[in-house]
Amino acid sequence: MILPDPEKPVRLNVKYDKDASFLAGGLFTDFMISVISEDDSIIKNINPARISMKMWKLSTSGNRPPANAETFSCNKIKDNDKEDGLCAIVIVEVLPNQPVKLVPKIKPPTPAVSNVRSVASRTLVRDLHLSITDEYDNHTGIDLVGTIIATIKGSNEEDTDTPLFIGKVRTLEFPFVNGSAEIMSLVLAESSPGRDSTEYFIVFEPRLPLLSRTLEPYILPFMFYNVFKLFKLSQFFFLDDQLSQSIVMYKSLFEASQQLLNEMKCQVEEGRLKEAQLRNELKIHNIDIPTTQQVPHIEALLKRKLSEQEELKKKPRRSCTLPNYTKGSGDVLGKIAHLAQIEDDRAAMVISWHLASDMDCVVTLTTDAARRIYDETQGRQQVLPLDSIYKKTLPDWKRPLPHFRNGKLYFKPIGDPVFARDLLTFPDNVEHCETVFGMLLGDTIILDNLDAANHYRKEVVKITHCPTLLTRDGDRIRSNGKFGGLQNKAPPMDKLRGMVFGAPVPKQCLILGEQIDLLQQYRSAVCKLDSVNKDLNSQLEYLRTPDMRKKKQELDEHEKNLKLIEEKLGMTPIRKCNDSLRHSPKVETTDCPVPPKRMRREATRQNSVIPIVTKTLSCC
Q1: Torsion angles phi and psi, residue 371, rounded to 5
Q2: Which of 95, 290, 309, 361 has the fewest CB atoms within 10 Å of its CB?
Q3: Which residues form the signal peptide (predicted)?
């Protein structure tokens, strides 16, 4: 029978508030990620740094994240981490935020009108569709009902010659239903007042009883001329609109190019800082990297250190030959003999012998798991459930040795005393193992030999209770003071029949592992820095190409021509006069501070469906 592996990850479980609303520009709800094993249990020793979340706008290209997907993680991801592993996709719909302004579906051209009999010459607007958006231009307010007030205004509030709509009125109302208003046409009255070659404005103000806040109106400028100038100047208005659109396109191109350039410069700066940081860390390990031919030098160093590490791993070291219990679920930790390691051979011998009757015991997290093993083995297997241990009597692992009283040395011991538990190292499940061995060993102390142990006990009992003492020579003095006899003398290592704690990986092997990890990170940092430098140089060269210089010249020419046309038309740029026309208060703002950049989730500003992929990088 093949049992499921409780340590092998097979899928991710993502929990979050599914009733939460994801508003543009708002904060995400919390996402709780669990890594599930083959036996459907949660793997608890996953490093949070190995879990990341990617976010991007959903497209027709499928569910695979694009290269520019924004990445969030619990900790900073190492540059050499692989982008493979398990993933879970969560698709959320980003909703519009609060209504802010009234905007046209399609921006109309600047009208040029007169007050003649011809309706076409007096028409200001045709088929104007107005709707409400939030501050990120997402359409919203589909449940709002009210009216749109269209008013003609001049630059000067005291102007008495302001043009009038048909019916000789300055104000018209239009119904606003389901978040939008359709204005089929707006026409000036025949023989309407108005000054020749003067710019006026139509201000469209929403009046929505269900909305407590005041929205930003839409303002459409228009020019008023007498009949003789109108035809001649209409072609200038056409050119004005064409040039304005071209300028917007050119400026968007240059702004995007500059933004990309700035981002590349930031990446280069970050790359240099990362390279310098890792170079300094390598110097702490006495590893110097030359400034030239870096990658070949790193590759050679890595090859040599990996070879040294492999040789150290191959060297024979003490190991426990007692068969471990097959973990049928995540509630089984294993046999006590396999839960800890001891570096010193003499200490390993006497501690293994002292715990000989417990070495074969299987430790479980729950009594249910222990009972299951008991039933499977017909009661032949020792089991120890952690949920049955009274933890208040367990020793404090930070407690000083008993020859210290109130932080001061009561007597000077001999034989290098140390708590036996402090000689143990735990490869996994440290907290659970501290509970197990805290209960089994208590405050047991180990010293060099029997003379040192007797001297220690004789002094300790003057001030407090003395725990069991072990010696590196294999002797034991029980907590009641009894010693001697075969039952208090450990046999040689070979007589323990493999029931001995194994030795940990040599410290030099761990040091080599740290150096290898640093070298791999440094290699990745150097390669990444080289890549972003090339990208930056390529972008700089592109901005200096004849094509880009030509576009810059065309932009300058368009701006000059636009300025000349607007001077001829007597127009005032809309951006300079909007503020004087808005008599309503600004959109309400709150006094709360702006959330940090990572928390604002810039990608949520567009009303769209965004898939969130949660990925564990360590699981292949």
Answers
A1: -65, -35
A2: 290
A3: none
Question: Rounded to whole angstroms, what are the CA distances from 63 to 53, 86, 367, 465, 609?
Answer: 14, 14, 44, 67, 12
383/351 same-domain check? yes
Strand residues in 422-480 grouped as ranges (E): 424-425, 445-447, 469-471, 476-477
What is the pTM for the complete model shown? 0.49
Q: How many domains does the chain have?
A: 4
Alpha carbon 416 to chain centroid, angstroms: 48
Q: Hey, which bits of 314-392 come out as E strands?
A: 332-335, 341-342, 362-364, 383-385
Contacts of residue 204, defined as CB under 8 A and 6 or more positions apart, other chains included, come to 102, 130, 148, 149, 150, 217, 218, 219, 220
For residues 284 and 391, membership in a common domain is answered with: no
- Per-residue pLDDT tens digits for 380-432: 999 999 999 998 889 988 889 999 988 889 999 999 999 999 999 998 889 99
Residue 611's pLDDT band (cuts 50, 70, 90): very low
Kindly report, residue by residue over 63-85, the tens digit of the pLDDT: 677 766 777 776 555 544 444 56
Residue 4 lies in a domain: no
* Residues 473, 496 share a domain: yes
Residue in 31, 38, 33 with CA at minimum distance from that of residue 616: 33
Q: Helix (H) and strand (E) counts for the chain?
A: 12, 27
Band the pLDDT of 581: cuts 50, 70, 90. Answer: very low
Is residue 329 within 8 Å of 36, Cβ to Cβ? no
Q: Can you give the CATH number for the domain in which 491 is found?
A: 3.30.70.1620
544 within a domain of the structure (yes/no): yes
Tokens 């011998």, residue?
349
Whether the CB-CB separation of 448 and 472 falls below 8 Å is answered with: yes
Last residue of a domain, one of 32, 63, 95: 95
Q: What angle (nearest 5°) sits at the alpha carbon of residue 14, between those of residues 8 and 18?
A: 165
What contacts 183, CB < 8 A, 6 or more positions away?
125, 127, 128, 129, 130, 148, 150, 174
Q: E strands along 158-294, which residues?
A: 171-176, 180-187, 198-207, 218-224
* Three-state secondary structure call for residue 62: strand
pLDDT single digits (tens) 151-209 = 999 887 777 789 999 999 999 999 999 889 999 999 999 888 888 888 899 999 999 99
Tell me, yes or no, whether 352 lies in a domain.
Answer: yes
